[in-house]
Amino acid sequence: MSKKKQTVEPLEIDLQQKGALSQSKEKEESSPNIRYENLPLVVLAGRPNVGKSTLFNRLIGKRKAITDAKPGVTRDPIEEECELLGTNKKICLVDTGGFKLEREGLDELVVARALAYIQRADLIIFIVDITQITPEDEEFAAFLRPYAKKLLLVVNKADSPERDALVWEHARWGLGQMLFISAEHNRNIDKLAEAIVARLDFSNIQQVEVEKADIHLAIMGKPNTGKSTLLNALVGYERSIVSPEPGTTRDIVKDRFQYRGRGIVVLDTAGIRRKKKVKDNVEYYSVTRSIRIVSQADVVVLLIDAEEGLSDQDKKIAAFAVEAGRPVVFALSKWDKMPDIKNAFEATRDRLRFFFGQMAYAPVVAISAKEGKGLDKLMSTVVSLYAKANKVIETSRLNQAVAEWIQETPPPAGPSTRFKLRYAVQSSVNPQRFIFFVTRPEAVPESYKSFLKNKIRFDFGLDGVPIQVELRASRRDRLRS
Fold this sequence. Notes:
The protein has helices at residues 15-30, 52-60, 107-120, 135-144, 189-198, 227-235, 281-292, 312-324, 344-356, 375-389, 395-408, 446-459, 475-480; strands at 33-37, 41-45, 78-84, 89-95, 123-129, 151-156, 178-180, 206-210, 215-221, 253-259, 262-268, 299-305, 328-333, 364-366, 421-428, 432-438, 467-473. The protein is α/β, with parallel strands linked by helices. The strands form four sheets. A six-stranded mixed β-sheet has the order 3-4-2-5-6-7, with helices on both faces. Strands 10-11-9-12-13-14 form a six-stranded mixed β-sheet, with helices on both faces. Strands 15-16-17 form a three-stranded mixed β-sheet. Strand 5, helix 4 and strand 6 form a beta-alpha-beta unit.
């Protein structure tokens, strides 16, 4: 078949798909990436079960923090930039773990994280429950007294006017300004937003135009594979609580750091266990959000415990990323504990690629977050995958390559498998998705789709990146039928 025969008429182009990709790229290039620096830090603090996470979700306008009747659900502080409704003012809002007098397990670490944020805060919102005052409230109020100048007492669960009279029981602490609200029912939240704005200085906020958008990196894996240790190593301080207790991380912990001048937003997720082992509601919510975060990430790092080896659960976690079309880096965690044997990494990498089968294209890196080894290799791989996942391929160049592929490896020519490739177009980046217009989509075997994916991957420098291929009947053939 000559190249002349492979020339495709313009009518074969799916203009809608082609336009969608070009318009999205033009919009990305024309609108600068803005980052806000020196946002006022507003910290929500109080004992467990006073509604801190409910108020956090209300103020940011989405359900990010896990809320549950079970005390002590929040462990790691959760940060979110948000614009206070009706004020046109941006802040950095932080939800912290509950203050406890009697502490066990992780409670000391949880309280220590909360107190560290309180010391840094520009405004502390001390949240209490209108229906009761506990010894923990009394103790926390006494602790916060030295911070009275940057304190706002908020009495929550004032769900109706009938409860309003109860608010004055909390005035005896003499902590200054006091508001009563209902975070759950959105009562007086507008007044709270106004009070927050009135107490803050917004003059130091800077809008920084950055040349390139931040790369969002999700760290995933089974419990106890070292996800929080990795996040801490990347950001350079103890951001996530690290403990041998499985399921330590519950909410999505987010932070930002620079790698060779590139902004990286790193997301530490809850460990994902097999479904039959998840019996607690809080863990169910944690796992659900971990899975959901894949679609918000640009690249996924799947941590695999090098000592424990591979499991079916690792394959299921990887499947979430593949389904979303996100690039995956397999990170062999805790490599410092492995025997120093020649070619040990190569052997482990080969087993991993055999185990994951269709994901043999994904890069593999050995790391020790605890000792800081392999992190530069990991991050250079992440940045490289991000660039490939967002690469735009010219339509003419793509179709010239398709014509060459057909010449080298013609489609099957049997009576039931005969089809012709009319045209191809790249319909999106990250995920890298391509649409092939063919005469008979139902006749194209999976083996030929795999062939097309591999050719795209290697001929256009997209190695290490998942490729999605969609088959459609061409317009010409639809009209004929």
